[in-house]
Please model this.
Amino acid sequence: MTKICNDCRSEHPLHDVDCPVAVAAVAARENKLRTALLTLEGLGYTYTDGAERWRPPIGPRPEWLDEPGPPLSEAEETRIANLAIEAVTKSGVATMTREQKTAYLTMIGQAAHQLLRSVEGDAYVRGWLDASIVDLKRAPFLTFRKLDA
Model:
């Protein structure tokens, strides 16, 4: 027995859960819910009944919400930098055309920018952008030849 899939509008077996469009749609919905949960918790909201009734923070904003975490060690910063470089390297960007590289790296930058805003806030990102503009006066310290090595 088949049915028309609500996500891709093609016929599937009645209990087929492997429709790639449906799987992607479910993952996107779950990601939005997880993001909303982290946002509310990050703002100090609480819940006691399975997240059906969120309670806003009462009183002044807690200082701990604005305190920076402990600084990363140099070893941890190096490990994280290597993870980022590995992610870009695995994408195959070094073998892309110039136009593909530009599009890919632009999307990575835009995604990172928005994620950084959600983690650190706009004031941090403004400072980061200002430092990046000053950094444009120097040659890039990372190139595709270094990534391929």
In short: The longest helix spans residues 20-42. The CA atoms of residues 36 and 78 lie 30 Å apart. Strands lie at 2-4, 11-13, 46-47, 54-55. The chain has a mean pLDDT of 77.
